[in-house]
Amino acid sequence: MTDPHPISDRDWTRLTLLVIAAFLLLRLAALLLSGFELTYDEAQYWAWSRHLAFGYFTKPGLIAWLIRGTTEVCGDGVACVRAPAPILHAAAAWFVFLAARRLYDARVAFWSAFAYVAMPAVSLSSLILNTDVPLLFFWCVGLHATVLLLEKRSLARAFYLAGTVAVGLNAKYAMIYLPASLLVYLVATADRRPLLRTGATWVALLGGLAGFLPNLIWNAHNGFVTFHHTGDNAGWEKIGFKFGKIFEYLGGQAVIPGPILFAVAILAAILGWRSARPAADRLMMWLSLPILIVIGVNAAFAKLHGNWAATAFPALIVFASALLCNGRWRGLLKLSAAIGTAAAVALAAGASLVGHVPLPEKPRQLHRLLHWADYGDKLAEAARAAGVRTVVTVGRPMTSETLYELRDSGLDVRPYVAPGAAPADQFEMTIPYEPAVHGPALLVTEADPAALGIAPERIEPLGALDTRIYKAPGGRMPIYRIDR
């Protein structure tokens, strides 16, 4: 059926920008109004940003550079630390639009961008900063670069893709899936195989690896700790098939774009459904489904990491949107967009109310983002009362949060590392507490100091902080003076 009032490409573009801007403003407002404090991962990234490097214990360095950029502009407040999240997701949606418009048309591009910016996972990820945010941004830029390269081979377009991969690798190593998936697509697609005989293609496929060199050099100087950490996370040391994990994995993946788009894309791949542009459909499937399969195998045999397949979804939602956009199932596309929008508004509204209305007792995870500022104030007061300038913490969560909360106190925060123990995080590797060097300190921990290997004669109990942070048993966090 022909639309009696067709919308021009220019109007689709304007509508796309309007939708993206509306979601961005909604999320920025939520960040400004919310009383949620930083997660310990976010506090860790902020602490990294005070000491810029090309790598850190668990991740490459880009997340720290991003935070440093925004905090140099607007300060170290929670909203400013998180500001890159909604901004980069909004920009990513625009690149989804650009890629889909090249592959299909402006209508499909609008619904693809709408689907991206309204994805439930993007709505959540826009309010809490993590390394998937810059990864997905550069992946969406890379998707656009890939489409341009396949449309017309040139060194300029090859360098566009290679440069995007190079920077994206410094967000997260998963960026390597893009050139890897593109290579498999070129090998598997007969009419695209001739591209493998051109220099521009190989510049695009391999040139991005140059961006990996700074992090590789950093790792070489630090015992390849990031590689060891990533390998440990994969969980292959405890290999064993777990049938139930497959369904858990698929259920988790369906939540990321929303169940409608996920089901449509998977069913279409299995049943052979295609849009009016089957060649474009094949490209989108090759840039999404292999990633879902590879991470699914890891989930079935080793560890389940649902977010490891996040890069599959930009191409997957373009494919699903193209299938639904011009067919009799267009209502499903609109329903998915409506559900995603409602979820985005609900999340933003809920976050905005935190700090202004009492939180329910459950889910308990919400309470992990509260009471840290009060904890920091009381801890600083206790340290000064004890006559020490160093605060010692135990474990990455406590070290990260304490570093952030005591950032303007003039106190030195350092993690405790048991004698002979290997560092377990960036802070234990770079700023461990050394009694002979740092002198007396205030130890804050819910653990028994004796279990940490601290001799009783070096410890003086000082009571406990009255605090409601989730780490404090019964609302009280024990503190001790620890001497040389």
UniProtKB/TrEMBL annotation:
Q: Subcellular localization, per the record?
A: Cell membrane
Q: For this UniProt entry, which segments traverse the membrane?
A: 12-33, 45-67, 79-97, 109-128, 170-188, 200-218, 250-271, 283-302, 308-325, 337-359
Where do the Glycosyltransferase RgtA/B/C/D-like domain residues begin and end?
59-218
GO CC terms: plasma membrane
Q: Name one GO molecular function term.
A: pentosyltransferase activity
A biological process from GO: lipopolysaccharide biosynthetic process
Membrane topology per the entry is: Multi-pass membrane protein
Q: What's one Pfam family the UniProt record gives for this protein?
A: PMT_2
Origin: domain of life: Bacteria
Q: Which organism is it from?
A: Pleomorphomonas carboxyditropha
User: Keywords in UniProt for this one?
Assistant: Cell membrane, Glycosyltransferase, Membrane, Transferase, Transmembrane, Transmembrane helix
By what name is this protein known?
Glycosyltransferase RgtA/B/C/D-like domain-containing protein
